Amino acid sequence: MTQSEAIERGRLLFAQECRFLRPIVSLEDVPDTELPEAAFIGRSNVGKSSLINALTGRNALARVSNTPGRTREINLFDLGRRLILADLPGYGFARVAKAQSAAWRRLISGYLQGRPQLARVCLLIDSRHGVKDSDETMMDLLDGAAVSFQVILTKSDKIDAAELANVLNAVAAATEKHTAGHPEVFVTSSETGAGLAEVRAALAGVALPSDSGYKPAAAGRDGG
Ligand code: GDP
Hints:
This protein is α/β, with parallel strands linked by helices.
């Protein structure tokens, strides 16, 4: 498949209906879904909600907040019965980290370690800040859970090209040290739309194909 075919496949996937499933506040709530899953995680305020909204082209799917650390549950979205998007609660916000760390760690570790359908974790890093200690801790956790992760730089519109190139090199070097780290780092901006098509294409690579026949009563129709 050429890159432009992959981009088109990603565009079509993200043009599908995106349905919000119920929020998960504890491990017992995690639903038994069969679809491949892609999770988004990062420090509070990294731009995770904005990225999910920008990828899906919906303004209010994931809540964008100016109060860092507000989201404490895992939110799942069913994208066209082909891929589940999981919006994980942010980390690294000191006030919340103290009060929430035990419950947060239990939920996140339990989810990451007990989810065989989890095909990809998108680890978001703010372009202005690079890899922080809390990101390293998360990468270690993902190594331990043997869940492959892909770094996505966010808010690339906030710094100039030279700075961005430096951050990208440093982040790629840090990612390379982790066994679960995917070598390709994406550079995105939810503001300008930069890099979004590439992220959609990558996620389409782990989604069910459009002609998988997973849809009920789809017999005889190949949809592709
Ligand atoms: P979350 O806590 O990780 O979900 O972060 P949000 O999506 O709520 O974003 C945090 C703040 O960063 C908000 O004020 C957003 O408007 C802003 N933001 C998010 N993404 C971008 C981006 O790509 N460019 C710029 N300039 N601002 C962004």
